[in-house]
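idk why but the lab printer keeps eating my pages so im just putting this in chat instead. protein + glutamic acid:
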Amino acid sequence: MNKNSTILDNTLTLLEKIEPVISNELKQEIIRKKGWRTRFAPSPTGFLHIGHAFAALIGWQIANQNPEKFLLRIDDLDFTRCSQKYVNQLISDLKWLDINWTANELYQSQRLSHYSRALQYLFDKDLIYPCYLSRSELTEFLSPPIEGISKQPNTRQSLSSQVIAKRQQKGIKPVLRLDMKKAIQKVGSISWLNIDGTSLKAEPGKFGDIILGRRDITASYHLSVVLDDAQSNIEVVTRGEDLRHSTDIHCLLQNLLDLPSPIYFHHPLIFGEDGNKLSKRHKSPSLVDLRNYKETLNKILNTKMLNDN
Ligand code: GLU
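predcted complex ->
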């Protein structure tokens, strides 16, 4: 068996793999609720791979396979890496997986004014501040990551007002950082709800003064997803375990911005044979390649069967 056919087999047994992820209790709850409103939110910076298909199929189960409850959001804020060709292909791949949705797809790139408004709101409350430090200046402030999290520094007082004025005159744009200490003081102790009904204490403090406004694309991942999930009335956020940490930040932002908190379902990730998480970076085979491979395989098999008869 070559590598492609092994991967193809894995793809075809995806639904079986989903079984243990969606426990019997959860399945009952999905049926009782007639599905939760959820979304699949890929970034169109490459073709979808099996890990994406797995995530999308889990979301589809959470929505009880109801196209009214399943949303497709295109997280295309990073315009230097996103492309319409990937959007077209991912829509075709999702349809191939028999996943459907009725609402129009939501494009983050069309929501910049909403992100700016939220930033202005936080700025007016003195919860974010501009940081004019260059990348190399910033390295002095960074501490080594703890448990994979690099704590962002408080750089509020790092430059004198004269230096800031000079940088402004040169047209240098700042990033906007959340004043984490102030933010935590404002909301107090907060927690988010897991799909199994447990409430988990959020500890956003370990991330430090995270960036919410970026020089190039207005909003950071954290701010945009929180605003978009609220705007789309998402009831359950389904996403990979690798994003579990971010939920503490999202919970904080929901509290600061007075937004409803959805329920969270962090599903396991699919790992490649090399033990790495499937990703574009690790050159995991794309669904479209596998689809083409399957078609070729079917053609060969059909020809063979015709010849055999
Ligand atoms: N767009 C994000 C990604 O592709 C997922 C967003 C989310 O689920 O919060 O990883």
